[in-house]
Amino acid sequence: MPHDKAPHETSSLYHLAERTLAQPKLATKAEVLELATFVLKGGEHASDVEREIAKKAQHNPEGVTAAELQGLATKVLAGRK
To answer: Cys-Cys with 44: which of 16, 62, 74, 79 at CB 3.0–4.6 Å?
Structure first.
């Protein structure tokens, strides 16, 4: 079965999500914003809770908890085929 490679930008986003899932406290402000933006604009339909966390992250990246970050990372990885 052929496997199409994701564009570099998308594959690095998945790498970021995997790293954030394992070590959420190490995510930088820019990385938190990148995950939040993907969840809000991504192809996967985010739940109301996921959208609220992503909006919170965009307004205050430092105020997002480790558990919330892991939730965003999980949502990003759910879109990977």
So the answer is: 79
